[in-house]
UniProtKB/TrEMBL annotation:
Pfam families: ABC_tran (PF00005)
Signal peptide range in chain numbering: none
Any one Gene Ontology molecular-function term assigned to this protein's record: ATP binding
Organism of origin: Methanospirillum purgamenti
Source taxon at top rank: Archaea
Sorted UniProt keywords: ATP-binding, Nucleotide-binding, Transport
Function: Required for corrinoid utilization. Probably part of the ABC transporter complex BtuCDF involved in cobalamin (vitamin B12) import. Probably responsible for energy coupling to the transport system.
EC numbers, comma separated: 7.6.2.8
Reactions this protein catalyses: an R-cob(III)alamin(out) + ATP + H2O = an R-cob(III)alamin(in) + ADP + phosphate + H(+)
SUPFAM superfamilies: P-loop containing nucleoside triphosphate hydrolases
Name of the protein this chain belongs to: Cobalamin import ATP-binding protein BtuD
Length: 263
């Protein structure tokens, strides 16, 4: 089977003097067009793992294979043509037009002193069409909502024309409507063949996207499997120290939901 993303025995610590790594011996593979959700409590290394795969952090041991190539053998420009990374939502500092922010994703395809061509601008326009923000192209990015800006960041990553997309909590701090817009976009991109790794704090998102799930704990990636088998009441109690009820909603194609319990 073709695995665009393959992780073997990955271990990371911020300082070699730290007695314990952030995570150790993490192994994972993703198939073409797959959506894989990382869940788990704060501080267990979900964002750190994604940054290691994106090449933003250097891991201590193990290997990351991108389409069969060792990540450490690729230049930043080479890896950026394969991997798109969308960080956690943040507030933009400068009022750049949305189109200018999106076309920045063409940087891996440009020379050191080159400017975007008309063809590059068309790629950016196509990416904005894909995520439904073409009407925002000329708006300052400081004048749009948090959900809209998150779609801008996804469009910027798509402008790289990657085959693997890494999303770090793409729905954090968004209202329900914007969460669903992001999830629909992710599902559509997967159907188009994009391989997607996504960190999330919402177990229900994993149920909605119907992909595989990995649970990050202090020990590393402890459970991997289909959302329906991994996200259980016992697992949620162990991971979050929270009581939940997992139930199936009638008329929802048999999908499950995770309901927190106060007592």
């Amino acid at each position: 089977m073709n695995h665009p993303l393959l992780i073997r025995d990955l271990t990371f610590r911020y300082n070699h003097k730290d007695p314990e790594p952030v995570f150790s011996s993490v192994s994972l593979h993703l198939s073409e067009g797959e959506i894989f959700c990382l869940i788990g409590p704060n501080g267990t290394g979900k964002s750190t793992l994604i940054k290691c795969i994106a090449g933003l952090l250097s891991f201590e041991s193990g290997e990351v294979l991108i389409e069969g190539n060792n990540l450490q053998s690729l230049t930043p420009s080479q890896s950026a043509r394969i991997i798109g990374y969308v960080p956690q939502s943040h507030i933009p500092s400068f009022p750049f037009p949305v189109r200018d922010v999106v076309v920045m994703g063409r940087s891996p395809h440009l020379g050191p002193l080159s400017s975007p061509t008309l063809a590059d601008m068309q790629v950016a326009d196509d990416a904005m069409d894909t995520v439904g923000i073409a009407h925002l192209a000329d708006r300052p990015c400081t004048d749009i909502s948090g959900g809209e800006y998150q779609l801008v960041l996804i469009a910027r990553a798509l402008t790289q024309m990657p085959r693997i997309l890494l999303l770090d909590e793409p729905t954090s701090h968004l209202d329900l409507g914007n969460q669903m817009k992001i999830l629909r976009t992710i599902a559509c991109l997967s159907e188009q063949g994009l391989t997607i790794l996504m960190a999330t704090h919402f177990p229900d998102h994993a149920f909605l996207l119907s992909g595989r799930v990995g649970v990050m704990m202090r020990q590393g990636l402890t459970r991997i499997g289909k959302a329906e088998t991994v996200i259980t009441e016992d697992t949620m109690k162990e991971a979050y120290d929270a009581r939940v009820s997992i139930m199936t909603i009638p008329g929802n194609d048999g999908r499950k939901i995770c309901v927190p319990l106060l007592s």
